[in-house]
Amino acid sequence: MKILIINGPNLNMLGIREPDHYGRATYADLVARIRAHAKEKGVRVAFVQSNHEGDLVDAIQHAYRRYDGIVINPGAYTHTSVAILDAVKAVSVPTVEVHISDVEAREEFRHVSYIRAACLATIAGHGTDGYLEAIDLLLAKGAEA
Ligand code: CA2
């Protein structure tokens, strides 16, 4: 199984500020953790991080017929982007939405997720463990198919 891990704007800044919301792990730590977990589970992973909405749409389109699943944290575009929702719908690659923080417990504008409607599941508030849980969920779904 091949899974594409997509991270949106500012997630490259992890570990630099706002540890109360996002913890102390850096983006490099996150990538290393996911790689180790994927290796253990026999899953191949690739990573994209971009601060640009169109790049995220391109990454999702790239997954079409190349990946068995997508794990995506669209960052702030979660709450605004119809383009990212449409891209996930268009490729119909099984996708899990992840948020490091508990978005439901934060400002009201973070309660809205455009992408959620196109995802198998949303995992929020589990810190960086959420990415590992998303991989496990995709694996379980793949095993059912
Ligand atoms: O909780 C999440 O994973 C978010 O997707 C993170 C986004 C935020 O806009 C979403 O509402 C929830 C923010 C990305 C990280 O932003 C940082 C800001 C300062 C320092 C480090 C990261």
Structural notes for this entry:
The chain is an alpha/beta fold and 145 residues long. The chain has a single domain (2-140), classed as Dehydroquinase, class II (Rossmann fold). The protein has five helices and five strands; from the N terminus they run βααβαβαββα. Strand 3 (69-73), helix 4 (82-91) and strand 4 form a beta-alpha-beta unit. The protein is globular, with a radius of gyration of 14 Å. The mean pLDDT is 96. The structure holds ligand CA2.
Strand content: 15-25%
Roughly how many Å is the radius of gyration? 14 Å
CATH topological fold name: Rossmann fold
- The percent range for helix content is 25-40%
**How many strand segments?**
5
Number of separate helices = 5
CATH superfamily: Dehydroquinase, class II
Query: Largest beta sheet, briefly?
Result: 5 strands, parallel
Query: What are the low-pLDDT stretches, counting only 5+ consecutive residues below 50?
Result: none
**Count of domain modules:** 1
End-to-end separation in angstroms reads 12 Å
Identify the overall geometry.
globular
The helix-and-strand class reads alpha/beta
* SSE arrangement, N to C: EHHEHEHEEH
- The CATH architecture comes to 3-Layer(aba) Sandwich
Q: What bound compounds does this protein have?
A: ligand CA2
So what's the CATH class?
Alpha Beta
